[in-house]
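Researcher: We're teaching a course module on how sequence relates to structure. For the next exercise, students receive a sequence and then see the predicted structure as tokens, so they can try to spot secondary structure elements on their own. Here is the exercise chain.
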Amino acid sequence: MADNLQVKLEMLERAVMELGTELFNLKGTMAKNQESHSQFLATVKGLKQILDEKGLITGEDFEAAVELGQAIEHFNSQAEHALSSELEKIKKTGH
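Model: And here is the predicted structure for the students to work with:
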């Protein structure tokens, strides 16, 4: 009986360590994605400023910029949903 309890405790410890590893990896991936996203937004903002300063932004260009912003927001919401799904999978694996 004590051996069985010890085995279960070791399995639980291993599961917790694996969850920690997965969460650490996921956190690193999210940090990289956020950094890339921030760089992309800075690039788009810079391009828009240059076009504005040169007087090259037309109504169509502005609308395209709005559509780009909407696409970025859509990407973010999908990424958040994917993250939530992955966290749920990890939680279920731990149980």
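Model: If you want an answer key for the exercise: The two ends are 22 Å apart (CA to CA). Residues 2-53 form the longest helix (52 residues).
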